[in-house]
Amino acid sequence: MPTYKPHARSHGRLDGQTRLLLAVNGLFVTAGALSGTFLGVYIWKASKNFELLGWFTLLHHLSMALTFWIAGYAVKRGRKSLVLRLGIGISALFYALVLALGTQSIPYIWILGIVQGVASGMFWLAFNVIYFEVTDADNRDRYNGLAGVIGALAGMAAPWFSGFLISRMAAEKGYRIIFMASLGIFVAGVLMTFLLRNRRTLGEYDWSFPARIWRVPETPWRSVLGALTVQGVRESVFGLMIGLLVYIQTGSELRLGNYTLITSAVSFLGFYAVGRWLKPARRVGGMLAGAIVMTAVILPFFFGVSYATMLVFGIGTSLTFPLYAIPMTSTVFDLIGRNEDSARKRVEYVVVRELALNAGRMLGMAVFIGTVRWSKAPLVLNVLMLVTGSAPLFSWMLMKRILRVPAKKAYARSRRRLQKMPDRV
């Protein structure tokens, strides 16, 4: 089993393992885009209940967070590839359960939310650790740009095909076909993971690390984790609402597929351009520009939610989201990798990162559930979207100092303070 060693400089190039990881990610994202876009619609059509969808999503995020923390032990013990396969395999199991239950899924919605959360937690934990190992500070922005391009291509083709198929099939037949297709793609993804090298991770898993890191004074990780938590608030609310609102406005899966096709095409251009143009020195301005536009495009909803305003929002967000997302992701992983001691703790740092994101996602979904229980009036939902949708501005405010200060210096200060903390809380 190869042992992880700090990278020789890649000078921006991607090697075979990096490209293979891109392919695994592409299969996972494609399977999710094929069915995930319409999963909320499928549940909505069976229940007509916003709150139920909120609970499904909340359970997903809760089980995902617990899975990150628990599965971190297996990843630290050198079982990254196994955990990655289990994540993809359990995703396949999720769609097999949806196929088996069909329209009777609603009474078992809590089980489905937990299963999907466990699958996502396993996949993204192992994926992010491997991503850290096969990339470095020189090629991380390029990798993230290419990953975004692949995600955008999957988002263009898969949902449009799904929407077209569902609209042409009677009853639930179209949904069953796309769920079966997702299951098959996940199986292909499992097979491809056998080509990834499994680098050994040294040391024992530090179960208390997520709690201890908050107690380190003046560490950059406080700001980073705060920014990630705020980011998670927006992700959960918008991830649930946007596709559903498009469907409610149009009553057509095909129109939802067309909407996703258009926005993903714009996202493709955005990720391609930002991946080539954005350098570390430009991250501060790029992230701010992305955050401002992502917030501003919510304002048209106050003049009426329609397919046109949804398109304005979708195109504006898709074009500028890469400016926000690439600096966030690259900076966090640069901070992990600036020192060999930190790299040894890469599993724990990835767990901490994902716990912060999921804490924000759970908070956002709790706010969503409370809001729709109180009122479903358009003005109330618009205010909810504006408040949660302005999260990128707060993330930028928390990150701007770290984006400006070389991560190596910020990390050195943090490491000295972390070493003075007790081993256990």
TrEMBL record:
Q: How does it sit in the membrane?
A: Multi-pass membrane protein
Kindly give the PANTHER family that the UniProt entry links to this protein: INTEGRAL MEMBRANE TRANSPORT PROTEIN-RELATED, MAJOR FACILITATOR SUPERFAMILY (MFS) PROFILE DOMAIN-CONTAINING PROTEIN
Task: Tell me the protein's name.
Answer: MFS transporter
Q: Where in the cell is it found?
A: Cell membrane
Write the record's keywords in alphabetical order, separated by commas.
Membrane, Transmembrane, Transmembrane helix
Name the InterPro entries for this protein.
Answer: MFS, MFS_trans_sf, Sugar_transport-like
Q: Does the keyword Transmembrane helix apply?
A: yes
User: GO cellular component terms?
Assistant: plasma membrane
Gene Ontology MF terms = transmembrane transporter activity
Entry's Gene3D superfamilies?
Answer: MFS general substrate transporter like domains
Transmembrane annotation, as ranges: 20-43, 55-75, 82-102, 108-131, 143-162, 174-196, 232-250, 256-274, 286-305, 311-335, 355-374, 380-399
Lineage: superkingdom: Bacteria
